Amino acid sequence: MKDIQDQPQSREDFEARLRAIGAERYHDRHPFHARLHGGDCTPDEVRAWVINRWMYQSRIPMKDAAFMSRVEDPDLRRAWRKRIEDHDGGTTEGGGIRRWLALAQAVGLDPDYVASGVGIMPATRFAVDAYVRFVRDMPLLDAVAASLTELFAPKIHAQRIEGLLAHYDFADDSSLAYFRKRLTEAPDDVAFGLDYVLTHADTREKQDAAAAALVFKTDVLWAQLDALWNGYVMGNTPPGAWQPGEGMLS
């Protein structure tokens, strides 16, 4: 008889396991976000966050393109393609990347400077590149499971909109458009990704691997904020990272 620990969890229990990972490990619990949403960040700490988060935002469509390049099922490609379109937008307008650069401009940064990637901290770059490699190289199920941090994102987006509007002069409908748009874009992605993982993780081994992939992704997000905290709150900015005053709008 199979050991009970080797038997797959029920769909309901496995979903609860995934959600528990977010409750314990998602980066909404990081002290940098409490500082940001509570209005305690200096203008330069906000700018450092915008610059370094750009690395992650800019790589989302790249990791999704890497994922799709391995997918033989056209139905999965059709469903996943929306994610690239949401972030890249059209030829001349729209998309999460453009909306993030609008936020950069609102906080006084030159969008071209931010888009260049100059000044991104090494730890940020390493963490984000590790995520892209993970999605490119790991089994498709693991790659989809890593995206399930989206399950927990609506809460932090809502907190961010409320906190930034309450505490920062730059915050308005235009500068916060990225977060507002994700409140309506993300639910379809979440529903599809979660159903895919719950359906295809049909053995305990696959369930364990999917859960580990989600843990890995929470580590990627947490590591970026650890770097921000150490570099700009604690003042231990590494060589080559953005220095206040650089890349500002003239």
Mean pLDDT, nearest integer?
96
Main structural class:
mainly alpha
Radius of gyration equals 19 Å
- Percentage of residues in DSSP E strands: under 5%
Q: Into which percent range does the helicity of residues fall? A: 55-70%
H and E order: HHHHHHHHHHH
Gross morphology is globular
Largest sheet: none
Give the oligomeric state: single chain
Structural notes for this entry:
This protein is mainly alpha-helical. The chain has eleven helices and no strands. It has helices spanning 11-25, 31-37, 43-68, 74-88, 96-106, 111-116, 122-137, 140-146, 153-167, 177-200, 204-233.
Which terms would index this structure?
single chain, 250 residues, mainly alpha, 11 helices, 0% strand
Write the layout of secondary structure elements.
Blueprint: H1 11-25, H2 31-37, H3 43-68, H4 74-88, H5 96-106, H6 111-116, H7 122-137, H8 140-146, H9 153-167, H10 177-200, H11 204-233
Helix pairs in contact: 1-11, 3-4, 3-5, 3-7, 3-11, 5-10, 7-8, 7-11, 8-10, 8-11, 9-10
Quick description:
The chain has 11 helices and no strands. By secondary structure, the chain is an all-alpha fold. The termini are far apart.
